[in-house]
Model the fold of this input.
Amino acid sequence: MTAALHPRVEAGAILFARYAFPPNRLGHCGPEASDTIREYILAARSDGGLVALERRFEGAYPYLKLIAGANAIADPFDRRVVEAYWIGNACLDHVGQSAFYKSLVERFRPRMGSRAFHWLSAQIAEGARPHHNFHVFDVYLKAGLHRDPHADVSLAHLDQCRISWGKIVTVAGPELVVRRRPLVLRQGRLWLDPPQEVRVRWHGGAAAPGENVSLHWDWACEVLRLAALRALVRETAASLENANLII
Done:
């Protein structure tokens, strides 16, 4: 029998699943297990089987281990750690530059040229943090961790891969219409344009017009409380600023 997970780990594993499912479903990262992961999401439960699958997300899991270690949190799937990586919270403040650099060396130096790795590691001095949007804007184009090495990389791809946010306009069963700011490239710099209405899928649960949700690919992941929304806006702005230093 699988041992019961600590409540924070159980909640964190489900939260991780909600963010990891959309790209996994498309074949971009993690094991080929999207149907199983979605079953866990719909059941709103987690166990050792889900955690074992999530450890195989080689893009995200090392960041969780880095954040957990820096905060003396025993399990990388503790909800505080998972939220720090996908959304942002105070746990990121405790990740030191040397530990972050060591992690980048271990993961990416073997697969990158020295010039590309020097550029990547220099982002730490500019304030880069181990957030998913750092991985999208700074790591992804240089090293990438797609399951499909031939996946097309484009501005639209980056826009969908980053964690963004949108305000719900209407709820239509398993879909939401939200107002979301798209990523654009203008005069050689990445910007967020004014909001546009888009339709996204939703795993279900309580959601109402006027609430904000986090978005990954064409899915809404969760309803965001105000503090989480502010953290995501802040981390996104910082990641874009770093990316624009070298575009």
Residues 93 and 129 are 8 Å apart (CA to CA).
